[in-house]
């Protein structure tokens, strides 16, 4: 039997960021708060609207062991190859670049590609900011945290939600 959970409190945080081809987190971030940054959204730009919900205090932070990563879009791969001392880091960078490019990936996918004993190399790539780590988002102990997002494009006469489908 399914258990119905009633939430007696919730907190929501909304973040908008621009998207470009093969660049999930492009240059613009638009805060949904009054005052501060005056960044403007412009016609024909694509944005992700990320919504975070929590049953806790609403202070979502990075915590726990990381499982998701992304090659830094601004990293000069040829220059980076020269600054890597660990052969394992160089091999892993080659695998990441050729299989994922600048799109997000998880360690499970590296496993499926036959990569083994890569954790030290992955840490080296993250320490050198060649690869960015995206740890799970957490709130206070015992609370539940969720994240979902839509992608929109700003047209001359409307805002079009392009991530909407039958299941979303």
TrEMBL record:
Q: Which UniProt keywords are given for this protein, alphabetically ordered?
A: Aminopeptidase, Hydrolase, Protease
Q: Which InterPro entries match?
A: Creatinase/aminopeptidase-like (IPR036005), Met_Aminopeptidase_Type2 (IPR050247), WH-like_DNA-bd_sf (IPR036388), WH_DNA-bd_sf (IPR036390)
Gene Ontology BP annotations: proteolysis
- Where does the record locate the signal sequence feature? none
Q: What is this protein called?
A: Methionine aminopeptidase 2
* Entry GO MF terms: aminopeptidase activity; metalloexopeptidase activity
Which PANTHER family does the record associate with it? METHIONINE AMINOPEPTIDASE 2
GO cellular component terms, semicolon-separated: cytoplasm
Taxonomic classification: Eukaryota, Metazoa, Ecdysozoa, Nematoda, Chromadorea
